[in-house]
Design a protein that fits this description.
Elements (H helix, E strand, L loop, with lengths): L1 H5 L2 H8 L16 H10 L4 H27 L6 H15 L7 H5 L8 H15 L3 H13 L1 H7 L1 H20 L3 H21 L5 H19 L8 H22 L7 H20 L12 H11 L3 E3 L7 H5 L10 E3 L1 H23 L11 H6 L4 H4 L2 H11 L5 E2 L7 H6 L2 E2 L14 H11 L3 E4 L13 H4 L1 H10 L2 E5 L2 E5 L13
Helix pairs in contact: 3-4, 4-5, 4-7, 4-15, 5-17, 7-8, 7-9, 8-11, 9-10, 10-14, 13-14, 13-15, 14-15, 15-17, 22-24
Length: 506
């Protein structure tokens, strides 16, 4: 997993120099921008630790936005101290355990994928609920400006941002806010021009090509059948029930705030899309990452929802009086019950989450954060000795690229190699991409191919790589017969060219 955030460092530097094509990234710009920031700050020999620091800072900023949004969701009538307490309690229940591994922090319930989407959500909340028109317009412009960066930063969250923003624009049209629609369109256009000139988030064509690729191939490459016997699928069932409950509450609340209901409806749309994404592979923490929209909805709707009392017909004398009729639908708030349910649900999520990751090693990432933030360890000290040995062997081999037959991008970083094909890892290629992968491998013609026989990527979901990509697998076996074992890694070299016997002149 750490290789996905650092393995493209040298390839993207070569792409920016116009030397290599844009690769098929699994996430988006989050796979290379943090590492490039780390390289600019700490130097090219401290990318691993530097990227962890950058990612952690981004996640911490995202968590602050989560707390801000959650605080705004609760009713204004609730005492400030109680609102803050509930925000902290819910955050503590959903956040990863203290001293978690860096990747668990990065891929947390509201993590690095959601960085741009979080700002976009905050902007649209203030747009629909702001009382000062010009401030609402500024928030709207900010949200529209961040739409394209959100799409390119994380592809799955970007598609969700497109759906959410589309619903917000539908609401503007419904309320005849034509000026706001024009502002949104102008901000998106300005953002597109800026991104095209700066090239920070990659090319438009390359990013959209990646998005369409994963829409077509995601289920083929990563999809798992929904199995209720698995713990991950039990989490998936919990997510389905939560999504349905949130939709039911929103239906009850639909007439309470005609303008604000658009934002809440957008949260429900995000919840449905996140549920769909998570249930494609309902394992581990992927389901826990899809819970936050319903947490927002429960806080927003549950704190304001009222049970209607039984309708009482007014007395005849009241009908003869002038003025409004008595309110027969006034009810009583159920805020405490709903928030109690939210607390119980958060406790369930924490318990299941701890069960899911209980077998993971715990490291003191936070204890040394300030120390490493000033000067991270060198990359050579951050990896096992065998990886340094493999990277040294790769540096001594000819060529500048490395084929990703092994799902370990750290090798590309340590050996300072680019990707040999458009697929950083062979596991990104669907079975119908086998011939294309083979063609690009033949064109790159790397001198060495690294495999990791014990790694899960060679037998992903019980499908051996040889059966998923038979043409490429057969080509490697035939043309790279010589092998050298370094620890748990195997280096496959091309067959040595036969030496022609000396022929005596006649």
């Amino acid at each position: 997993m750490r290789g996905e955030y650092t393995g493209s460092f040298w390839h993207m530097k070569a792409w920016q120099a116009g030397k290599v094509p844009f690769p098929v990234l699994i996430h988006g710009a989050m796979d290379y921008i943090p590492s490039q920031i780390a390289g600019a700050v700490y130097g090219s020999s401290r990318i691993i630790g530097g990227t962890r620091i950058v990612n952690t800072l981004i996640v911490c900023a995202t968590w602050v936005l989560f707390l801000e949004l959650l605080y705004l969701m609760f009713p204004d009538s609730m005492p400030v101290a109680r609102r803050i307490a509930w925000c902290l309690v819910l955050f503590a229940l959903l956040a990863p355990p203290f001293l978690s591994m860096p990747v668990q922090v990065t891929e947390s319930f509201f993590g690095i994928r959601d960085a741009f989407l979080a700002v976009l959500l905050l902007g649209y909340y203030h747009y629909w609920n702001g009382s000062i028109r010009w401030k609402s317009g500024l928030w709207l412009a900010l949200s529209a400006l961040l739409l394209l960066p959100s799409v390119f930063w994380s592809y799955d969250r970007g598609l969700i941002a497109i759906g959410f923003s589309g619903l917000m624009m539908l609401g503007m049209a419904f309320h005849k806010r034509w000026t706001d629609l024009a502002v949104s369109a102008g901000a998106c256009l300005a953002s597109g021009i800026l991104l095209h000139q700066l090239r920070w988030f990659g090319p438009f064509q390359g990013n959209f090509s990646n998005i369409f690729y994963w829409i077509r191939e995601s289920k083929n490459v990563w999809g798992l059948p929904f199995d209720f016997s698995q713990v991950g699928s039990q989490l998936g069932l919990l997510l389905i029930l939560l999504t349905c409950s949130s939709g039911w509450l929103l239906w009850l609340f639909r007439k309470a705030n005609p303008r604000g209901i658009w934002f809440l409806g957008g949260l429900l749309l995000i919840q449905i899309l996140l549920a769909k994404t998570s249930l494609n592979r309902p394992v581990n923490t992927r389901v826990l990452m899809a819970l936050y929209p319903s947490v927002f909805l429960l806080a927003a709707i549950g704190g304001r929802l009222k049970y209607p009392r039984r309708e009482v017909m007014p007395a005849p004398s009241a009908l003869d009086q002038e003025g409004p009729l008595p309110d027969s639908t006034a009810g009583y708030p159920i805020r405490s019950a709903t928030l109690a349910f939210a607390g119980v649900f958060g406790l369930m999520a924490l318990t299941i989450g701890l069960i899911q990751i209980s077998d993971s090693p715990i490291v003191g990432a936070y204890q040394t954060f300030l120390q490493t933030a000033l000067k991270p360890k060198s990359d050579a000290r951050m990896v096992p000795a065998e990886l340094n040995d493999v990277s040294s062997a790769l540096k001594n081999s000819p060529g500048t690229s490395l084929f990703g037959w092994c799902n370990e991008g750290i090798l590309q970083l340590l050996a300072r190699r680019t990707w040999a094909t458009r697929f950083p890892y062979a596991v990104y290629a669907g079975s119908d991409q086998d011939s294309l992968l083979l063609t690009e491998l033949q064109q790159a013609d790397p001198a060495v191919i690294v495999s990791h026989p014990d790694q899960w990527s060679l037998n992903i979901d019980g499908r051996p790589m040889a059966s998923r990509l038979p043409l490429t697998s057969r080509y490697i076996a035939e043309h790279y017969p010589e092998s050298t074992r370094i620890g748990s890694y195997t280096l496959h070299q091309k067959a040595s060219a036969p030496t022609s016997p000396a022929v005596s002149p006649p």
